[in-house]
Amino acid sequence: MSEQMRVLQRVVMPLDRDLDVVRLYLDDRIGKGRPEVEPTGKNKQQVVEDEGGAHEPLLSIDVDTMTRRGVTVPIGRRLSLCTYFNAFPAGYWRRWSVLEEVRLRVRVRGEGTLIVYRSNAKGHVQRVTSAHVDSTEVSEHRFKLPLKPFIDGGWYWFDLVAGQRPIELVEAEWLTAEAGGRRQGRINIGITTFNRPAFCVDQLAALARAEEVLEVIEEILIIDQGTQRVADHPGFAEAAQALGAKLRMIEQPNLGGSGGFARAMEETARADRADYVLLLDDDVITEPEGILRAVTFADLARTPTIVGGHMFSLYDRSVLHAYGETLEKYRWFWGPAPNTKHGHDFAARGLRQTPWLHRRIDVDYNGWWMCLIPTEVIHKIGLPMPMFIKWDDAEYGVRAGKAGFPTVSLPGVAVWHVPWHEKDDTIDWQAYYHERNRLVSALLHSPYERGGNLLKESLFVSIKHALAMQYSAAELMLMAIEDVLSGPEHMHRQLATKLPEIREFRKRFSDARGVERIEQLPPVRSKPPRKGRMPTKPGSRLGMIRKAAVSGLKQFRPVDPKARVNPQAIVPHIDLAWWRLADLDSALVSAADGTGVFWYQRDRKEFRSLLQRTSALHARLLKEWPELSRRYRQAVPQLVAPESWWDNFQAAPKAGDR
Fold first, then answer.
1. What are 360-419's pLDDT values in tens digits?
2. What is the reported pTM?
3. Residue 130 and residue 114: Cα distance in Å, rounded?
4. Does position 351 have pLDDT exceeding 80, yes or no?
5. Using an 8 Å Cβ cutoff, are 84 and 32 in contact?
6. Is there a catalytic annotation at residue 393?
7. d(CA 93, CA 98)
8. How far, in Å, CA of 171 to CA of 65, rounded?
9. How many Å apart are CA 44 and CA 118, to the nearest integer?
10. Which position among 28, 275, 393, 585 bears the catalytic label?
11. Residue 414 pairs with which residues in a beta bridge?
12. Between residues 46 and 216, which one has the greater pLDDT?
């Protein structure tokens, strides 16, 4: 009797032969950028380096020979599947799944050599085995590969080397015979959207074309919270017809990301037909194969596990923007996991040439740009906190982890998303949510007395905003602290109404009122710098403190009357820093996305008020932290309960709310 095999991961090529992402699927840079050492034992060990590496030209093969599952390697050429989407992340399967081994099945024809490699967590490469291919018909080659050596990380992959004739990869799969009777899980896909109908329709059309993915989908839930409805888009009818009964549209008030994703999670848990809900942002492009991999990994995990996808840049599509996220608990701030780097460009350095990518990365949470959550987890720990946006995904991951449900950010599962450096949402209306939700999540989960360094850092950030004439952001931080001090009851009560209040409040401040063109504002009239010295960043911590003290004293001096008529400088967003702006009485500051410009103007009365109130509020937070922490932790079951959320789900939209 033949063994029953289950596909873990299929080898795939880029959809539409997209040349921008080809290096994520195929690589021909074998031997480039890595020194070799003498062989040890029967296997040659190769050490890869992580220095240098310019953006190289495209593959030297004809991409027209690509299909979705295969590619042809020309005579005398070598092609590697040691790539983000096609290597097998053995370290993750070893750590989190029930598997003890993996099978590789490769179907090829032509003439050449198939070579199987593995790496360890240090990025050292070892040749495992090989097979000669010489056939005009399709031949199949199978390899049984143990997972035991991968406790700290490492990958499997294979290379194809063409001989006197081309060699064609027809298809390849990573398989298991150890599924243990575990059935194929089914998913709901939950997409929260606000005024991005074109993105949503494109996503629906892509899902409709992905037949293998449709087989595991129970429902696609579009939670539409905008005024530009997805259902009104010209392409919607065709996409909806293709998806049929699998698509369900839900309209509700704008409750932010947490409200939209909470609705998708609640609909999934209440129906209890799907094993998982896959949360997707409305402005992403997916690799459909990643959806299947996430479901399969969750099916074979040893314990119910949240499976997250990585984020590539939507604008520079070979760049990996987020590989793993953790919380720096003493600061209580998110960031890249240790031993990872933001912005790795696979077009410049492939997987084989980048040692840090071979180490298994453990995370605290995964962003909800793409995140699969087992229905069992929702039943056990509830829905997200009513945070509107920011920190809802991080808080949920931490809460799940405490309940025994880990999060795994799985290589080979990813979306393309607008990168964070194209935004600066810490100084716009979102400054309120950054501050409030960071404080609330710390009150719930920080292991340090009074949040560790959080309050000191929050005070400093508030003062920096004031020194930089970013009065709207500083005021929103104070508004956030006041709401936190009012207690957990405010969170659901204000969920649908806070954003309109914030938008109206920001209209008072010049730093929040932008125009599209510099010519719409008065011309700059600036003095030459004193003794020709341009502003420079303080070079030490002591220098920063001195600069803050000197700049703080300046804020109490009268504003130059001329600065109210003409800005004193133009400050590009790339140069935006408090120590630069603190020397000025007014400045034109460009937006992070380059779409507009703001006229910052110093106001010593506003600065004095901010300094007094931020000091008082942070002192009060410090004093009341233990009691606040107790109240918020006690309120969690009610805040995340479906009954609490339904009042907001069903609330009628009010004029100006959206």
1. 999 999 999 999 999 999 999 999 999 999 999 999 999 999 999 999 999 999 999 988
2. 0.91
3. 5
4. yes
5. no
6. yes
7. 8
8. 13
9. 11
10. 393
11. 310
12. 216
